[in-house]
Structures are given as C-alpha cells and as structure tokens.
Amino acid sequence: MSSLKKQALISDLIVLAHADDKVTASEYDFIQRLARRMDITQAEVDALFQHPLPSKPIFSELERIIHFHKLLLVMNVDGEIHEKEVETIKEFGLKMGIRPAAIDRILNRLNDYEHKLIPSEELVKIFQTYYN
Q1: What letter does residue 70 receive in the DSSP assignment?
Q2: In this structure, how many other beta carbons lie within 10 angstroms of the beta carbon of residue 27?
Q3: pLDDT above 70: residue 4
C-alpha cells in the first residue's frame, strides 16, 4: 500500500476522532500506534491532525472490513460514543460502499460486547450476511 493511501486511511481515523470536537489522549495514542504499524512517523501523524488528507477509495472487501473495524475502535477507545461520531462513521461506511443496513446492524451490536468492542469475527459475519 502506498504511503499516501496509508496517510489517507489514518486521516479518516483522525476525522472520526475530531467528530465530537475533541480528541482524547486515548484516541491520539491509538491512532499513533496504528500509524507506527503502517510505518507512518509521529511527525507525519501530527501533520495529518492539522491537515487530514481526503479519503481514498477502498476496493477490496477485506480492506473495507479492516478499515471499518479500525474506525469502530477509534470511536470506542475513549469509552464514549457521541452522536457526531456515529454520524461520521456512517458517512465513512457509505463512502466505502457498505450497505446502510450492515452499518446499522454493526452499530446496534456494539452494546452486546464488553467495552463495545465488536470482535473482528463477528464483524466479518455481519459483512458476509449482507454481501454473500
């Protein structure tokens, strides 16, 4: 994956973290950890916090599932889910081509899990229900 595409994916996470008009330390740290795994430096992430890149198309189903899961994790990392974050994650899901019913089902299932962290296997099952 190109550096620009990786930075665009991190930018999506940053936009979601900003959705409730505040970025918590846990959100910032989580995004920094994900960025390090993607070989994006702290300085690059800090620059993206100031000027996020626009979203890039995600073509494969696996990439959409992984990216949507990361968005869910950022939304939940501070233990608070704000309505603006829910609206923003729905917008990202629609941009990625995820069916609205699948997004709603995923968001509704969050409360079924400790810390509202839906397991990746459950996320895949939901995607399979709507796409197979």
Answers
A1: H
A2: 23
A3: yes
